[in-house]
Design brief:
330 residues; alpha/beta; Rossmann fold; UDP-galactose 4-epimerase, domain 1; 2 domains; seven-stranded parallel β-sheet; five-stranded mixed β-sheet; 10 helices; 14 strands; globular
Amino acid sequence: MKKSVLVVGGAGYVGSHTAKQLTKNGFTPVVLDRDIKTKPWATQYGPAFECNLPRDIDFLKEIVHRYNIDSCIHFAAHTQVGESVRDPSKYYKNNVIMTVQLLDKLREIGVNKFVFSSSAAVYGVPVNGIAEDNETNLQPINPYGRSKLMVENILKDYYVAYGLSSISLRYFNAAGADNDSEIGELRENESHIIPLAIEAAFQSKEFQLFGTDFDTPDGTCIRDYVHVTDLAVAHVLALQKVSGNVICEQYNLGSSTGTSNQQLLDTIKKYIGEFKIAKMPKRAGDPPILIANTDRAKNELGWKTEHSTIDNIVCTAVKWYNNINKKDLN
């Protein structure tokens, strides 16, 4: 019999890719999400239920008992940095308070293995642009990053007090799409550079490039892009680790390779062609360089990136855009 895993926020971008990887690895993902009706393609890998936490928190008990669940992967969160600055209450209520309510209900019904979707935002602006995988340089600079760090600290306290086994995965710039184009990135208010640039290129719109005077070789900021499938694999490995150990750990997930915004746009042009780029002033708080040190994830989880070249990331993202918009690339 396949082991069932609760996937909260499993209709989202990383959540849906993780659900697919869980299925490939012999698990049954049981998805809870507030938005499954509009994303049937994202919930094709196991049972899926519309659930708006914390309103439907008692529904958890029914689902956990029905599918004999003892572990949870938690993706559900607000993720827009700018919005978190404008409305921090929304982020602390949803990302922190709701997570505590979820943890307490899970603990009450016997679910004691937890994988948490954290973020590189817990680091803020690391020295020299390299986020070392340790606890000495965690200085988030916005409410979104602080909300993720708060949950990480709560998980440490729950480990000590209640024996909750957890892993927090701090991922950097999630990007790309499923290699089979079954699932991919799709949001109402898109803010990520790759889908925005692809849309601008296909629709002959002007793309806004923020910052061309950073202290980097080409003047644009450098980021660490990691393919969403590699992230999904890491969640499965983390689940397997918490299932066999009572631990509380945190790991960076990235490609450990820096790609500048200009290099990224040049790669997109290779697949779609030229498009207009408007050079805009840099945004406050944007670090020039942000790259992950992933040594611990490699050594302790046995994780490695297999899909995270920038060419593959862009190629799969373009194919996904083509799939959902029925564009002809030929």
